[in-house]
Design a protein that fits this description.
Length: about 700
């Protein structure tokens, strides 16, 4: 388990020093996120001069720039001693520096701290790019640590930045129909006579290794298996460096292309003269109709698609992404006969049983000259109804879209009105109108209690006990003798202190708190009545606006909930998650166990139970730098996709090794024998060590020499 964490730390942070990784894991008490924070903070402590010293932040609407971290510590105060004056001077200097920096730049200390964090993040990203060698997971010497427990799913070993391979393969393996197709694939009899380009693609050798890998995932006694042979064949297809982490969508495209080619060869061999059916195409590919207007001319095109790409930026949920992807340009022209506007709509005419969405979470930053990851939150449902995007429902969908558009326009008007009630005023500071009226009512109802500022000064001085000796003579005469002066019979001689403010410039009496100076009972009664009535009216208007907005939101949410629009359900089967930045990171998968009705987390060699709440936290995005990268939905009405296999003669369900063809069954048995031999050798080695320790303990030790007199 510790080795798993170490490899994940190495892969995420790019740190190769095993001692540093172990120390970070120890300091974080096994918390992976905390260990990553330790390591990235450590890497960012000594940033490059050109990127840390002159990290510049542009002020909005201004050509001035500020430099964070470039100022020298010109005023340094030693606080290691006990001198309290040094502490006071340090506090004063800190406040002065903070205020001066804010006056000069308009940037607060908090904003500068954020800039430093961003600076450290840049250093972390650059450090992650320096990884040049693939990291391989090392096996525990104890084979019992690698033994499969009961019928727990088998994991896949990371053989060098291959978490992308594990995430995709496990998602496909847990599609039982796909698993059956791969396991029961028989290579063409004339494989040696195939055209040269087919051999160059090496899809048939990869298919053979994929069958072996799937067979081990079914029946191995190991906790995890090694996919090196299949990975090596795949890596030849990528022109990039072997150590570079592959893009999930790129790999999935390549994988499906190879499988399609392999099954196509087999189909053509079995159906000579007939148009062969490719099971990979039927499983993963669908069709959509593009209907549009180009320069005033209408057109229709039918296109095939596999993985459907969706933009993430600017959308809050999967339906918004799909709506934007299905409509391009000005579509009003599609409903009228005479128009020169251009635009098009996409309508699904045939959906595949397995529907995969690619979420475009990476974009190229032109200013920085590098790709960046989009961490925006994007929600997606466990069950997705696709009726609104089907060509057969296009007329109903268009009507509903127009209605939603009208409701959203009306909603915007209501929200603007509500904003005027909740943020009232013409100045920079605004307050809810209800509160403004309440404040006005409280002000009008206040009674002016007047007193002199001198009285306030005397009262505060008496209360604090610090200014009693400075009280004016007039105040002393009014207060009379104190209790301490009662026993004395002689008058106390008091010196008169001249105070220009209290004696020469006494202002007129001022109220203790804001209140009307001159208002009659009749005026107050009329004003209170108006303010009460207006406040009630504003409260009612605000409540009505909020209720109307809620009703419209609810109407929009339920627009597609009628029976005609919930006939094409697709259930979420797998979520492929990426954690990290655009240039580096880690992949894992959440896969739904349709028979146990629970989510499982497949993270390389680790396979654990999970929950929808954990999936949401890691997949929706917006919470940290982990988010869904690929969504795999399956047709909820096509039960054969996830249905177990049954014996045709006995009718009993086939499980484990019984589901494998004879050649793969023998292959798995041989591998299990080798693993059992490892267990036996380990037991024999432990028994031998125990025997040796026992013999050593039985050897009599010579008596200790007696001390010299």
């Amino acid at each position: 388990h510790q080795q798993t964490f170490l490899n994940q730390l190495r892969e995420i942070t790019g740190v190769n020093d095993i001692q540093v990784l172990q120390q970070a894991l120890k300091d974080s008490n096994g918390n992976l996120e905390l260990a990553v924070a330790f390591l990235t903070a450590k890497n960012a402590k000594v940033p490059q001069l050109e990127e840390a010293t002159y990290y510049q932040t542009a002020l909005p609407g201004n050509d001035r720039y500020i430099s964070v971290g470039s100022q020298a510590d010109t005023n340094v105060i030693d606080l290691t001693g006990d001198d309290k004056d040094d502490l006071q001077r340090a506090i004063a200097l800190s406040l002065e520096e903070s205020n001066r920096a804010f006056r000069e730049t308009g940037i607060t200390d908090e904003e500068q701290a954020i800039s430093r964090v961003l600076e450290a993040s840049i250093a972390e990203n650059k450090a992650s790019l320096k990884r040049t060698h693939p990291e391989v997971w090392s096996d525990s010497p104890n084979p019992y640590d690698r033994k499969r427990q009961d019928n727990c799913p088998v994991g896949l070993k990371n053989v060098g930045n291959t978490c992308w391979f594990s995430a995709v393969i496990q998602s496909l393996f847990n599609l039982l129909e796909f698993r059956r197709l791969v396991l029961n694939f028989n290579p063409p009899a004339n494989a040696q006579d195939l055209p040269r380009n087919q051999k160059e693609h090496r899809n048939l050798p990869f298919m053979r290794e994929l069958r072996y890998l799937f067979a081990l995932l079914v029946g191995s006694k190991r906790k995890y298996v090694d996919p090196s042979r299949a990975v090596e064949i795949l890596k030849d297809a990528f022109k990039s460096n072997d150590s570079q982490q592959q893009d999930v969508s790129e790999f999935t495209h390549k994988l499906l292309d190879w499988l399609e080619d392999a099954f196509q060869i087999k189909a053509e061999e079995e159906r000579e003269g007939e148009k062969p059916k490719n099971p990979m195409v039927e499983l993963f590919y669908g069709r959509f109709l593009a209907v549009g207007v180009l320069e005033g001319k209408k057109f229709e095109n039918t296109e095939m698609f596999g993985q459907y790409p969706l933009q993430v930026n600017g959308f809050k949920d999967l339906h918004e992404c799909l709506e934007a992807a299905m409509i391009e340009g000005e579509i009003e022209s599609l409903h009228s006969e005479n128009s020169a506007k251009s635009g098009q709509e996409h309508w699904f005419t045939e959906l595949p049983p397995v529907l995969t969405f690619e979420l475009s979470r990476f974009e190229f930053n032109q200013a920085l000259g590098r790709p960046e990851k989009i961490h925006n939150k994007l929600e997606f449902p466990p069950v997705l109804y696709l009726d609104r995007y089907m060509h057969k429902n296009r007329e109903i969908t268009r009507i509903k879209r127009d209605e939603i558009k009208r409701l959203k326009e009306y909603l915007m008007v209501l929200q603007q009105r509500l904003e005027r009630y909740l943020s009232y005023g013409s100045g920079p500071k605004r307050f809810p109108l209800v509160d403004v009226l309440q404040y006005a009512l409280e002000f009008a109802s206040s009674k002016p209690v007047c007193t002199s500022p001198v009285d306030d000064l005397g009262a505060s001085a008496t209360a604090s006990g610090t200014l009693t000796t400075q009280t004016s003579p007039s105040t002393i005469e009014q207060q009379g003798p104190s209790s301490s002066d009662v026993p004395s019979t002689s008058p106390v001689q008091r010196s008169v202190i001249h105070k220009p403010f209290t004696q020469s410039r006494i202002p007129p009496d001022l109220p203790m708190h804001p209140a009307p100076r001159h208002i009659t009972e009749e005026e107050l009664s009329v004003l209170e009545g108006c303010l009460h009535r207006w406040r009630t009216e504003v409260e009612n208007d605000t409540r009505d606006l909020q209720e109307s907005i809620s009703r419209i939101h609810r109407t929009i949410e339920l627009m597609y909930s009628d029976k005609t629009m919930v006939q094409v359900p697709y259930r979420l089967h797998a979520v492929l998650v990426h954690e990290g930045q655009a240039n580096a990171g880690h992949y894992w998968a959440y896969i739904y166990d349709h028979h146990q009705n629970r989510w499982m987390k497949y993270n390389d060699i680790s396979v654990t139970k999970s929950t929808w709440e954990e999936l949401e936290r890691d997949s929706f995005g917006g919470y940290r730098n982990a988010s869904a990268y690929c969504l795999m939905y399956i047709n909820d009405k096509e039960q054969y996709l996830i249905q177990e296999e049954f014996n045709k003669e006995t009718g009993q369900m086939l499980v484990g090794m019984d589901t494998l063809p004879s050649d793969l069954r023998d292959y798995v048995k041989e591998d299990n024998k080798r693993f059992e031999k490892e267990l036996e050798d380990w037991d024999a080695e432990l028994a031998q060590k125990a025997q040796q320790e026992k013999l050593l303990s039985q050897i009599p030790r010579p008596p200790a020499p007696s001390p010299a007199p």
